[in-house]
Amino acid sequence: MTAPLFSRTHASLGEFALRPVDPAGDAELLHGWVTHPKAVYWMMQDADLAAVEAEFARIDADPYHDAFIGLHNGVPAFLMERYDPAHREVTEVHEAAPGDIGMHFLTAPTDTPVHGFTLAVITTVMDALFAEPGTRRVVVEPAVGNTAVHALNKAVGFEIERTVTLPKGEAYLSTCTRDQFLAARGENPC
């Protein structure tokens, strides 16, 4: 398995890390995640295993889109996608600036939720994105009805820019600068 490209330690929850998705090797795992009822906003509810593998192979081949398995203490626990908003997802509704990066994330379904886990996941995702020196702002486009992710986005510094219409429906185009993220974490952005 590929070594993690990024890792961080959460004081009470342990280690979080990211490694690239292996489309063939991770297809079964990802199929279980993206077709679970909790992943309704991922819009792959009816996808079969072959379709999931094909989707992640497409992402793997795309120079403007990447997918990563998130590990919690070494165990796959979440998915992150990053994309270039000048070329993918929001090109019709967002004028990308230098340093913009787009993101999606999904936590794996579980029967034993851990308090603070999803906030630790999105914080890990944001840490990883801002670990790249060229990243100035993260762009997301969650569905208007996805209230749980709106609260998480706000907790890490995202601000809703406006409501937009995308092929998947109405969404909140939201952005978070490095300074907004650091401020949300209680760190001095200067």
Automatic annotation (TrEMBL):
Keywords: Acyltransferase, Transferase. It comes from the Bacteria. This is Lysine N-acyltransferase MbtK. Gene3D superfamilies: 3.40.630.30. One of its GO terms (molecular function) is acyltransferase activity. It comes from Streptomyces chrestomyceticus. InterPro entries: Acyl_CoA_acyltransferase, Acyltransferase_MbtK/IucB-like. The lineage of its organism: Bacteria, Bacillati, Actinomycetota, Actinomycetes, Kitasatosporales. Pathway: Siderophore biosynthesis; mycobactin biosynthesis. Coiled coil: none annotated.
